[in-house]
Amino acid sequence: MKYMKLGSKPDAFQSDGRNIRFFVSELPADVFVHVDEVRFHLHKFPLLSKSRRLLGLMTQACDNNKDEIFLHDFPGGSKAFEVCAKFCYGMVVTLSAHNVAAARCAAEYLEMTEDVDKGNLIYKIEVFLNTSILQSWKDSIIALQTTKLLLPWSEELNLVERCIKCIASKTSTDPSNVSWSYTCNRKWTASDSLVEIEQGTHEIPPDWWIEDICELDVELYKRVMIAVKSKGRMSSKIIGEALKFYTFRWLPDSYDALVADDYMRKNRILVETIISLLPSDKCGGSLCRFLLKLLKVVILVGGNGPMKEELIDRISMQLHKASVKDLLVPAKSDGNTIYDVNLVQCLVSKSLMQVNTENDISFDKSDNAFVEIASRNKVLLALGRLVDGYLAEIAHDPNLYISSFIDIAKSVPEEARPSHDGLYTAIDIYLKDHPDLTKEEKKMICALMDVKKFSSEASIHAAQNEQLPLRIVVQVLFFEHLKISGVMPTTTDDISMCQATMDGDCEGRIVDHHNILKHQMENLSIKADEYQNGEGKKIVKTRSTRIFDKLWIDKGQRETGKKSETSRSSQSTPTFVKRGEDKTTGSSRNTKHSIS
Q1: Which DSSP string corresponds to 172-191?
Q2: Coil, strand or helix: which one is 330?
Q3: Do 278 and 314 form a contact (C-beta atoms < 8 A)?
Q4: Residue with more model confidence, 246 or 196
Q5: Are 326 and 356 in contact (CB under 8 A)?
Q6: d(C-alpha 551, C-alpha 505), whole Å
Q7: Given pLDDT bands bounded at 50, 70 and 90, which one contains residue 176?
Q8: Which phi and psi angles does 68 have, rounded to 5°?
Q9: Pairing of strands 20-23, 4-6
Q10: Bias category Basic and acidic residues: which stretches (predicted)?
């Protein structure tokens, strides 16, 4: 920090402890100056020789036979006046970034100009400001922060604008040319304290400046950031990082502190300021997560509608870069659910509109059409994973209506879900945490799933899931059998016939591969646990195993007339047949089972 000493005489000011400051001298005081609540006992000659204003006030007081002067609304208060008084007496005065702005405003108030006395206080302070304070990164920030208590004087003297201009100029300096100290407490630095940087000895990050300006008042910070952005040399990513750092520096961590009456207005002003400073273009996933946190604050502190809508529009442009945790926005106090599911549904809807709009534009630019389509598919896949993960989180909420769950699940298109494993996980959680669902409600929510898009792991889990309707379990087992047989349906007719197989009487429609299926299901491990005893293996049957016993049971006595046809079928690829046309052999049981 830069310092400047004025005068040479020792400090002779003392206090009697009763808000009285006096100059120790053999001569009695002949003028009494009141500043705020402090009364100064001084002498006329030193003061009148430096200050035109005191000269005029003293003349008026003498005309009225008075020896007291009252200085109202004095910039900087009694401390700033004492600096000026000591200068008049020729005492040692130390100026620094902490008091130079106040001293400059006080000197202007007292009219301590060059035409009153050569080398007066205003001139000396201006020299110090221009050659030291405004040339220093740290000092210019400290001086700027002090100007907020000196309004309107600091504005009229252009102190605020000069400090802002200096700060903005230094932020745009090439990092390789930064030779002054700056604060770096973030993870990318090896030190968490003030570091004196020597040029060429350390690679300085382009956002080296963002921590120091975080100490500024929100209004001053806004003006500095506007100046930084106006230079056009700072990337949107760095601007976003600076805003994020400032927000986390000043927003309270706890919910109670955030919504407390004493701080709610302050917090609202803060988020409004940050939103107004946001860069207009996309700035990456980290900014998306930051915007979602801002949205949470806006909702909690009761931000205005336009501010909330602007955030929603910005978030929707890059929602696919968010995480599930970012979407867990608390619902309003009058809501039934834990999280604001309507807000998330709105974000997803706007995001898909944005994706579709960009896709339409891409076809107008044929050269980049394939790149745009690939990018769109990537965004859709990310949105699908995000929505499924969000559903898995909110599924624990006992107050979440099934209609809300279904609406959010349907908010993304089918092409966003090449796999339904994530959706199955969410539905499984919802079924377990909502045991009172009716049979129809279970069918409704399970209808969201396409078992053909299950992985082997999901199929194994679903086949043993007691929460799922029996019909879904049958579908899982059936299509898993088709997968391992290498006969998955590809045409529309095949898929329709497979679906028809699931309707009504399943037993009479499934092809005769009893022995093959038994062997394949053992390999899938969807039978229950096996254990070894002295005589061999004993199989403990689960519900899925019992279903297979019913679905794949032989019907030898009923179908012996078709044995040769069945034999040929078992050696060839399984085909899809109509109800009543399939014939099986091997078992004497002729009982017909229907699974619904």
Answers
A1: TS-GGG--S-B---STTSS-
A2: strand
A3: yes
A4: 246
A5: no
A6: 10
A7: confident
A8: -120, 140
A9: unpaired
A10: 557-566
389, 425 Cβ separation under 8 angstroms: no
Torsion of CA 400, 402, 404, 409, to 10 degrees: 120
Query: pLDDT-based confidence at 594, cuts 50/70/90?
Result: very low
Give the total residue count for the chain: 596
- pLDDT for the residue 498: 52
Tokens of 459: 């199929």
Amino acid sitting at position 122: I
Cβ contact 106:76 at 8 Å: yes
pTM over 0.85: no
Cα separation of 82 and 88, whole Å? 10
Question: Of the segments 296-310, 334-348, 422-436, 474-488, which one has the largest average pLDDT value?
Answer: 422-436
Classify residue 450 as exposed, middle or buried by CB count within 10 Å of its CB (0-12, 13-18, 19+).
middle
pLDDT attached to residue 199? 40
Residue 218's Cα: distance from chain center in Å?
20
Of 365, 424, 440, nearest in space to 392 by CA: 424
**CA-to-CA distance for 147 and 540, rounded, in angstroms?**
81
Question: Could you write out the DSSP letters of every residue in 555-586?
Answer: -HHHHGGGHHHHHHHHTS------TT-----S
pLDDT on residue 549? 54
| Alpha helix segments (H runs only) across 90-213 | 100-110, 121-131, 137-146, 153-156, 159-171
Question: Encoding tokens for residue 326?
Answer: 């970012």
How many whole angstroms separate alpha carbon 496 and alpha carbon 499?
Answer: 5
Interatomic CA distance for residues 349 and 343, integer angstroms:
10
Cβ contact 499:451 at 8 Å: no
Going 551 to 486 to 518 to 473, the CA torsion angle's sign is: negative
41: which 2 tokens?
Answer: 């006992």
Q: How many CB atoms lie within 10 A of CB 10?
A: 7
Alpha carbon distance 299, 318 (integer Å):
20
How many beta carbons lie within 10 A of that of residue 324, not counting itself? 16
Long-range Cβ pairs for the range 171-176 (8 Å, 24+): 171/209, 171/228, 171/234, 172/228, 172/231, 172/233, 172/234, 175/203, 175/204, 175/205, 175/206, 175/208, 176/200, 176/204
Could you count the other beta carbons within 10 Å of the beta carbon of residue 335? 13
C-alpha–C-alpha distance, residues 249 and 192, integer Å: 16
Please enumerate in sequence order all residues whose Cβ is within 8 A of that of 16, keeping only pairs 6 or more positions apart, or say none: 22
The pairing of beta strand 20-23 with beta strand 13-15: antiparallel
Distance of CA 337 to the CA centre of its chain: 22
CB 76 within 8 A of CB 110: no
Q: Over 60: is that where the pLDDT of 284 sits?
A: no
